[in-house]
Amino acid sequence: MTNDITRLTGELAEPAEVLDSAEFIQPPLPNVDEYDLTPIQLKAAQAVMFNDMTLKKKGSKRKPYKQIAAELGIDEDTLIRYRALPEFQRFTRDAMQLSVSSSVPMAITRLHQLADGSITGTPSIKAIEMLLEMDGLYSKSSKHEISVQQPTFNTPVSDEELARIIARADVDVIDMETVADDTDEE
User: Fold this and answer.
1) Helices (H), the chain
2) The CATH number of the domain covering residues in 2-134
3) I want to staple 69 with a disulfide (CB 3.0 to 4.6 A). Which of 10, 38, 46, 76 is the partner?
4) Would the pLDDT of 69 be above 90?
5) Is this prediction's pTM over 0.90?
């Protein structure tokens, strides 16, 4: 895929190769000054994070920690000790979160494309539902809450009594659904 770059004068510049494969996309990294890690620990954290984010595709493999440690010039046990450091874990967690956050606009764009059918040619009902759920206009699940109040002095409710209350609530919900179905048919 090429990207035609036009100068301000309107002249067409040399086409530039655009790499849009996920293998070439490097996620943003957090500010390293905010972490109490040595330079080698930071390199190790970045290497582990990039390795963990390697997509599992045909021909693409994650490296074993032994190989990552060798590339960094440290022992595998040292890498494992680094990974146990709370600051190391905080850095990798923050870096992963930054990476995910930076991908949200692209994911939403793809979701819109699936919803309007511009990718597959057929609009996706699931994508439409997801967009509506994100906006709070739709929900597949229904939430039922039962609160039990007894007029007595904080007497605990027995399991049998709670089961009777839930059974009555379930019957009431079924009755309401039956009434709603009957009204829809009229």
Assistant:
1) 39-52, 65-72, 76-84, 86-116, 125-134, 159-185
2) 1.10.10.60
3) 76
4) yes
5) no
